[in-house]
Amino acid sequence: MTETPRHAPPFYCPYCGEENIRPHGEESSGYRCGSCLRVWNLRLIGTITTENQEATS
Ligand SMILES: [Zn+2]
User: Fold this and answer.
1) CA 21–ligand 1 middle distance (angstroms)
2) Which residue range forms the structural domain that includes residue 23?
3) Burial 1-33 (b: 16+ CB within 10 A, else e)
C-alpha cells in the first residue's frame, strides 16, 4: 500500500550537515546519518498557499 508518494531523499543531514545519509527502517521517511548517528524522520506535514501565508492564528 502506498500512503504517501516517496519524497526525494535529502542531501544533507539536518542535524550535522553531512551527506552520509541512508534510508533507515521500514518507513520510507526514515533516515539515518552515518556521521552523527542520528536516526530521524522526514515527513510531509502539508502544503500552504501563498494567499494564506499572512494568516495569523
Ligand atoms: Zn548527521
Assistant:
1) 8
2) 7-42
3) eeeeeeeeeeeebeeeeeeebeeeeeeeeebbb
